[in-house]
Here is the input.
Amino acid sequence: MTDLHAREASKDEWDGPVVELVEDSGVVGVVYLDDDVLFAEFNRDDDGDAWAFEVADLQTALDTAAAMLLPEGTSLLLESDPAQSEDAGHPVDKLAAEFDELAVHRGDEDEGFYPLNVAARVVQSCESLGLAVVSVEGFKLDGGWASAVAGMSVDTGDAHAGEPWPVFMAGCNVQAIALLERWVREPNLTVALEVGDVDGDRFVL
Here is the structure.
């Protein structure tokens, strides 16, 4: 985990608003709009080398910068993206079509329980579909029964409540991946997930 984060800035040489990307109090890059297109420029470090960041940290910082610069409700996805097409249906339907059959167990309310590696793939698909993983819970299966594992239930949606949607979505998904990476040490674990959309609706997979 790095200290990379975004902060608003005012620079005389820029025609419009700009957001600085900051690491350990030093500016490593800027994000700005040019003809309604979002750009990111990165500096080199004091030795002339390129900066390197964890992808999750960089994604979160860029999503935060986008939320600062873009009008509220604006999506970074292209209008032609299948997830945004009316003909494609709701992105949750596409997610369910991809992963429903990979659930190793279904509860009384048809909630799915997924192996850790499948759960990680669900989170990755959510990122491309414009969805947020808002709840992650670990279970052990025993004789057809699912028992919750103590300390393995996190409502990521509550943790990021009130944030602009791009920041909320990125924060939830980054936290979900971090939890799954930590839980991989737990043998025979299955995971139940809830996802949320930009309208604030939540769906059990």
The mean pLDDT is 82. The chain is about 30% helix and 30% strand.
